[in-house]
Amino acid sequence: MAEFRRGGLRATAGPRLSRSKETKGQKSDHNAPFAQWSTERVCNWLEDFGLGQYVIFARQWVTSGHTLLTATPQDMEKEMGIKHPLHRKKLVLAIKSINAKQDEKSAQLDHIWVTRWLDDIGLPQYKDQFHESRVDGRMLQYLTVNDLLFLKVTSQLHHLSIKCAIHVLHVNSFNPHCLRRRPVEENNVSPSEVVQWSNHRVMEWLRSVDLAEYAPNLRGSGVHGGLIILEPRFNGDTLAMLLNIPPQKTLLRRHLTTNFNVLIGPEAQQEKREITESTAYTALTTTAKVRPKKLGFSHFGNLRKKKFDESTDYICPMDTNPAATNGTQKNYGGHKGLSPLTDRELDQVGQTD
């Protein structure tokens, strides 16, 4: 047998274990601006971005990052086969951000994080639609009423739930860990803490006020701390309805309302009372639907052009300037109260800014 000697070649040795030295071209490509990215690098970026299904067409069409930077949404549909409107929107927003050299915090939250966020705000039933549409943090920021309808979110209550949840993200600079899932202390909880409660945290609170048997009814309801505090029409009766507490159980409902009022604090309580007593008040229900905007007769000529226009009827307008916000100037730890929205007004959200 051959004598064993040190220094021979082993299968695990060699460059596979260490990073191969980059060539000059690769190194400069790594630090290059997006416009100068190679086709391969753009394709890898699309893959990481969650749009890997378009890489085959991108390889044939994209010569460098510049191709995407100058592409119109029509080009994206024609050359890359991106027929899904939200996939197009995702790519358009990302490219705009690169062009403007914006470092948006929301861009750090990917589409996998958004599906977990839907769990947190009590709307897990929409996870498949959001995941398939690759909705990420940046898209949440620019989500419109029509986008939500495309995602099959038609319930008015669920629109309001998503609106309030995005508002909470805005105020917390899109901090991925801003929602509270577990109780720390049930006593002396301030409204500024409640506004960050997840759906599960609200259920924990129900258990603490002896309503454990009704807590599971909140699954899939869209109830979270942001909706409870920021939506003026959300009151004790709304919660009782969502918990399926029968109207004849008056003592139980009174017990819930008393604890609910203690939870939200006097400021929110007063605001909710004023809204309830106003003549224009309509109670929130589980059956109210949001309808797509009807186009006026004059719009028909623009239909083809408008297909690729970026709608600005954001579900949660980004302008947090009190003078421009269509809401009350109450403040719950930096969270402004949001104005109540009817079916008709919800279709127009964002156009008042």
TrEMBL record:
Keywords: Coiled coil, Repeat. Residues 1-33, 321-353 are annotated as: Disordered. InterPro entries: LIPB1/2_SAM_1, LIPB1/2_SAM_2nd, LIPB1/2_SAM_3rd, Liprin, SAM, SAM/pointed_sf. The keyword Repeat applies. Residues 322-331 have a biased composition (Polar residues). GO terms for cellular component: cytosol; presynaptic active zone. GO terms for biological process: neuromuscular junction development. Residues 37-101, 114-172, 197-228 form the SAM domain. Residues 19-30 have a biased composition (Basic and acidic residues). The keyword Coiled coil applies. Belongs to the liprin family. Liprin-beta subfamily. This is PPFIA binding protein 2. It comes from Strix occidentalis caurina (northern spotted owl).
